[in-house]
Amino acid sequence: AKDLGKNRFMVFENRMHEQLLTRLDQENRLREAVHRGELRLHLQPVFAVQEGRVVGAEALVRWQDPFRGLQQPGSFIPLAEETGMIIEIDRWILLEACRTLRHWQVESPWTAPAWVSVNLSAAHLDLPDLTDHVAYALATTGLSPQCLVLELTETVMMRDVAVTSARLQELRELGVRIAIDDFGTGYSSLGYLRDIPVDVLKLDRSFITGLVGNGRQQELVSAIVQLGHTLGLRVVAEGVEDADELNLLTVMGCKFVQGYHLGRPEPAHQLYERLTTPALH
Ligand code: C2E
Ligand code: CA
Ligand code: CA
Ligand code: CA
Questions:
Q1: Neighbours of ion ligand 3 (CB under 5 A)
Q2: Which residue ranges does the record assign to the EAL domain (predicted)?
């Protein structure tokens, strides 16, 4: 009971802090967060349906705010994007993700995931040194390029096609793969699949939610999976939350799945421990 009281007081104190923070404070503190080492790398496993094991992991940023505790990206990524701080944040995550996977591969080659995927905001495509930076991250960590996937949302495809495809082609020439994130939500024409070089489609969670019992939605998802395969792309279904969804996707021939049913995002070392300690699965 004593602990409960203490927790309640902390919740109260945290709320007060939140209210006292102006946007400017937040902006400054986010700016410092990178330098103070307050960002955290979380990883969510990606499963290969047929092999029934973890083959990849998605890097998702968290902010260990000393005042408010662990912050989800929804609470600071929008501000980071508005202010351009997202570039630095994404670059930090990229480096940390490459370093982590490389470390696992050395320590535990049989259980390490084959790839790690990293989210990049659209703003990166305006920077001429994007490819150099990715090359630097690979060189400095020793991770091989085939082990890195860069995720860009579909809205990126609505930008200048010539610039976008040139940048993505440069990246692919390094040997890294490109994924379209949140596929199906960008309200963009499918024409970009013809013009823009990509390797992976990540089918947005909104297509998976409500899949069970909705025949029309099942036809749609099944058609998208086939479209991806016909184009030689890898298709990953996001947001798989239960066994029924997983079974449907398996029947549809979807080979890769990600979602709470298979594993939530967690601190990198925690995922590593689970993967290397089969008894705890
Ligand atoms: P996203 O790239 O689409 O990442 C997937 C999000 O869905 C993650 O939320 C993940 O925790 C959540 N998720 C995974 N499986 C399930 C599920 O079964 N059910 C439900 N309801 N949700 C699930 P998170 O970590 O809060 O990230 C939200 C978004 O923030 C990401 O969406 C991405 O757009 C952005 N983000 C996260 N990390 C980074 C980063 O390092 N850089 C950039 N630029 N954006 C990031
Ligand atoms: Ca993503
Ligand atoms: Ca997504
Ligand atoms: Ca998203």
A1: 181-182, 238
A2: 23-279
Which pLDDT band holds residue 281 (cuts at 50, 70, 90)?
very low
Q: What pLDDT sits at residue 98?
A: 98
Q: Choose one of 47, 76, 77, 148 to mutate for the ligand 1 pocket test, by most ligand atoms within 8 angstroms of C-beta.
A: 77
Kindly state the helix (H) or strand (E) to which residue 235 belongs, with its residue range.
strand 234-237
The bound ligand whose nearest atom lies closest to the alpha carbon of 151 is: 2
Give the up-direction half-sphere exposure of residue 268: CA atoms within 13 A in the CB hemisphere.
Answer: 23
| pTM for the whole structure | 0.92
Q: Considering only CA atoms, which residue is closest to atom 29 of ligand 1?
A: 73
**Both structure tokens of 260:** 């709470």
DSSP state of 72: P
Contacts 24+ apart (CB under 8 A), 65-71: 65/29, 65/33, 65/38, 66/38, 67/14, 67/17, 67/21, 68/14, 68/17, 68/18, 69/14, 70/40
Sign (positive/negative) of CA torsion 49, 53, 59, 65? Answer: positive
Residue nearest to atom 34 of ligand 1 (CA): 119
Residues 6+ apart with CB under 8 A from 233: 198, 199, 200, 201
Instruction: Name the token pair of 42.
Output: 């979380």
